[in-house]
Amino acid sequence: MSDMEIRDDRAGGRLEAIAGDEVVGHIEYFVLDAPARALVPVHTIVEPAHEGKGIAGSLARELYGIAAREGIVVAPLCPYVVKWAARHPEEAPAADPELLGAAMQWLEAHPGRF
After folding, report:
1. Whose CA is closest to 77, among 102, 41, 113?
2. Per-residue confidence at 114, pLDDT binned at 50, 70, 90?
3. 17 with 26: CB under 8 angstroms?
């Protein structure tokens, strides 16, 4: 989708794909601080009218790009991002299992967040 913009709403924990003035997809995530700083995607959602246009992949790619620019890692809990990362290992380094465990513990400790 060439007329799409991706915006990081860090305070809101959303990476949003915007076409025109409409949010057509997003990744919900949180920032883990320990045992290491990481972006942790939890859900990827694309609006039904915009499915099949590569939006989810563009969001995943940008999330990993943001992490790389910040010198941190992505610890994916979102099933879509896990699958995307497995298909793109050159762009999506694997997260340490300890970090994934810590991300899962954080998510369990904040049940109302997502």
Report:
1. 41
2. confident
3. yes
Tell me how crowded residue 76 is: count the other CB atoms within 10 A of its CB: 29
pTM higher than 0.85: yes
Residues 6+ apart with CB under 8 A from 12: none
**Helix (H) or strand (E) run with residue 30 in it:** strand 22-32
Closest CA to 43 of 18, 63, 66, 65: 63
Please answer whether residues 63 and 84 qualify as being in contact, where contact means their C-beta atoms are separated by less than 8 angstroms: no
Considering only CA atoms, which of 46, 40, 65, 39 is closest in space to residue 4? 46
Q: Tokens standing for 32?
A: 């883990």
CA 103 to chain centre: 13
**How far from the centroid of its chain's Cα atoms is residue 49's Cα?**
21
